[in-house]
Specification:
3-stranded parallel β-sheet, single chain
């Protein structure tokens, strides 16, 4: 039986009465689909860590275990200056609806979106949002938020779009302002803090997975990018260049996941086995640290040797 989201208190961290600089929204509502795979959103968790490193106050609204009215109430109560909404295909209608509600209830809040679908078709969202961010936004979006909050306006930010790679904006007169996307190199990836998971209802996620699989899973990414061109994967955000995180950073994150009560990992890399030596280092460290966590991944079978299979097991 798939658990009801009402069976577990879905409230994450305590809501502070102070207004937030930025609210980040994951506009997915759990539909109780039989094949559902529920993970808290890594991109939003990463942005929350980066924004907080800049000293900004951040509130995350993960809609997964919320009713729509409760999500709207949480966004409104935070009184944010910026609302950032993640969008992929299955969430696009929810995202646009929330943007419209924000415009009506928080008319002074800046509405921003990002994710796979805005990366591919930013023009579809330019009228519903004040700004669209395409591709990786790990540097550009936090910089944009900090500059906007310091200045209190967008005019000079729009005049310097190249400062914010991936920016897409539709001026009132219809002129498009945009800048090219830019992929982070491995050095930049090594500087990233681990995703901040403090904002999520972990008890609800863990109850879902224990009911469905017998143990709880959390998502993690160890590499970014994939050079293949599979029909079912457009890789709009991370692109074709493989970049690896450092093992120290990966295992710092795994330790954080385990401390929060999770018993397994879903490795969400586009293709975990692209660099066999990266996978071997990962496996050897999992063994040496005796973490006793199950893990699952996406991989190409033609990149895995029998010896590697023995190590993975």
């Amino acid at each position: 039986m798939i658990p009801s989201h009402r069976a577990v208190n879905p409230v994450g961290p305590t809501v502070c009465d102070a207004a937030a600089d930025v609210v980040l929204v994951y506009p997915y509502y759990y539909t109780h689909a039989a094949k559902a795979m529920l993970f808290h959103p890594l991109g939003i968790a990463q942005l929350a860590a980066l924004l907080r490193r800049k000293g900004l106050t951040v509130r995350v609204v993960d809609c997964t275990f919320l009713e729509k009215k409760d999500a709207v109430a949480a966004i409104t109560a935070a009184r944010p200056k910026i609302v950032g909404i993640y969008i992929m295909l299955s969430m696009s209608a929810n995202a646009v609806e929330l943007a419209d509600i924000v415009k009506k209830r928080l008319p002074d809040a800046l509405r921003v979106c990002g994710g796979p679908l805005p990366t591919l078709w930013p023009e579809q969202f330019a009228s519903a949002f004040d700004f669209v961010f395409r591709g990786e936004a790990s540097e550009s979006f936090p910089d944009f938020c900090a500059d906007y909050l310091e200045s209190g306006g967008v005019a000079h930010l729009v005049d310097k779009p190249m400062r914010y790679p991936g920016l897409y904006h539709l001026r009132p007169g219809g002129e498009i302002v945009s800048s090219d996307c830019r992929q982070s190199d491995e050095a930049a990836i090594h500087r990233l803090p681990i995703p901040d998971r403090s904002d999520y209802p972990h008890a609800a996620y863990q109850a879902f997975w224990r009911e469905a699989e017998g143990f709880s899973l959390a998502g993690i990414m160890t590499t970014f990018g994939c050079p293949y061109h599979c029909d079912f994967c457009s890789k709009p955000v991370y692109g074709n260049t493989l970049r690896r995180r450092s093992m120290d950073s990966i295992f710092e994150e795994i330790a954080d996941i385990k401390r929060r009560g999770y018993e397994g990992l879903w490795i969400a890399d586009d293709c975990f086995s692209l660099d066999p030596e990266h996978v071997r280092r990962f496996c050897r460290r999992m063994i040496s640290e005796k973490l006793d966590m199950k893990w699952f991944c996406l991989a190409r079978v033609d990149g895995i040797s029998p010896d590697d299979i023995d190590l993975w097991e």
